[in-house]
Design a protein that fits this description.
This protein is mainly β and 379 residues long. The protein is built from 4 helices and 21 strands. Bound molecules: (2R,3S,4R,5S)-2-(hydroxymethyl)piperidine-3,4,5-triol.
């Protein structure tokens, strides 16, 4: 009996070891493949899900300040570099840590009470009000990712402190701008209880037709992963994962950037896209997103349109080379157009230590027919 069982037990042990090692590999944070991005003090830049833009004589890099352990937030950090820095070689730029420009607070009941989650902060300079406006994905203390709100904060100086203006869900009581009267009338007939099972064909159809739009109509639309974009005419847009991460919304901001005009469009309804990043090139808007797999990387998704209002066309991922199928282990956060080129900025998340998530910045160029290409890091 014992002899008969031995080969079986040996194979079982081998299989277990193999599975464990595969699992271990999957779990091993990919950021170890990439070097840290060191600031002027030799410390890894703790500014994730962020954005970089030039203001005056500086490059401003705002991002999530994350703790060494755990998933809640510390606040938003700023790193700066002189405007003369060579952004085509971002790893060589000497980033100076300017500290937290917005911190979580200890005041009970504040939307940014310690224990909240602040993700993907993006900052805009508002020329008429002469102030910086920060938008960020906000999740309230103790509620996981349920609140799905947008926080707005302002500061007269780049270095802050940014003061929370308010937090909200976008576009309460508003239908997408391109919804017709018939679309609206139909969406109003959709009932959550009729679609309890997700991912079925009728459920997918109902999602595209506005099942979740209608569910969230009064409270406002969910807003999670996000970016901002200022168009050539000065109109600013907030682009975010909505409808339980199923559909991207592009919502026009008011001229002070502190609210919504009510004009908004849906992109790829039901497509399950997050981590939106956007760049405009030769009159075409290119939107590069990820799929939804938590902190794990997945294949990037590319969309283009001649107008924010759509229609949007999906294209194959622009990522090329080794690791392209999983966006080289990263997830986008920003498109930095630095004048002489464009960088696709991405985070290589390390959920075991979010503060140590790596930064991967890759050149985005255009091929001879004008389609974007992201060149891999040759890891
Ligand atoms: C993926 C998002 O892109 C991140 O910003 C973060 O929200 C994680 N999901 C949380 O799982």
């Amino acid at each position: 009996m014992e002899t008969k069982l031995r080969p079986y037990l040996v194979s079982l042990a081998a299989l277990t070891l193999c599975t464990l090692s595969l699992f271990g590999q999957r779990q091993r944070p990919r950021q170890y493949d990439y070097p840290a991005t060191l600031d002027t003090e030799g410390k890894h830049v703790n500014a994730h899900g962020g954005s970089i833009f030039r203001h005056g004589d500086q490059w401003l890099w705002y991002g999530e300040a994350r703790p060494e352990r755990g998933f809640t937030s510390v606040g938003v950090a700023l790193y700066t570099a002189p405007a003369t820095a060579d952004m085509s070689q971002p790893q060589t730029v000497a980033w100076q840590n300017r500290g937290l420009v917005m911190s979580v607070v200890d005041e009970a009941g504040s939307p940014i009470e310690r224990g909240c989650i602040i993700e993907r902060p993006k900052v805009l300079w508002n020329e008429s009000d002469k102030q910086f406006v920060m938008l960020f994905h906000l999740e309230l203390k103790g509620r996981g990712y349920d609140a799905a709100m947008t926080g707005f904060a302002t500061s007269k100086t780049a270095e802050g402190p940014f003061v929370l203006h308010h937090a909200q869900r976008p576009n309460a009581g508003k239908w997408p701008t391109d919804f017709t009267e018939a679309d609206i009338a139909h969406a109003k007939t959709l009932k959550i209880n009729d679609f309890k099972e997700w991912w079925t064909a009728p459920w997918r159809k109902a999602i595209a037709e506005g099942l979740f739009l209608w569910r969230d109509f009064e409270a406002g639309q969910m807003s999670r992963d996000m970016t901002v974009f200022t168009d050539d005419d000065g109109t600013a847009w907030h682009i975010f994962s909505s409808e339980d991460n199923l559909t991207i919304h592009a919502a026009e901001l008011t001229s002070d950037y502190l609210g919504y005009t009510g004009r908004y469009y849906r992109i790829a309804p039901g497509g399950q896209n997050e981590a939106p990043t956007i760049v405009k090139h030769n009159g075409t808007y290119w939107l590069l997103c990820s799929g939804c797999t938590g902190w794990d990387p997945n294949e990037a998704r590319l969309f283009s349109s001649k107008s924010i209002a759509g229609p949007w066309t999906q294209h194959p991922s622009p990522c090329q080379g080794r690791g392209a199928k999983r966006t080289y282990g990263a997830q986008g956060t920003w498109m930095l157009n630095y004048g002489n080129g464009i960088l696709f900025m991405a985070d290589v998340w390390n959920p075991r230590s979010l503060a140590n998530s790596r930064h991967l910045w890759l050149p985005l160029t255009f091929d001879t027919v004008g389609n974007p290409i992201v060149t891999g890091p040759n890891q």
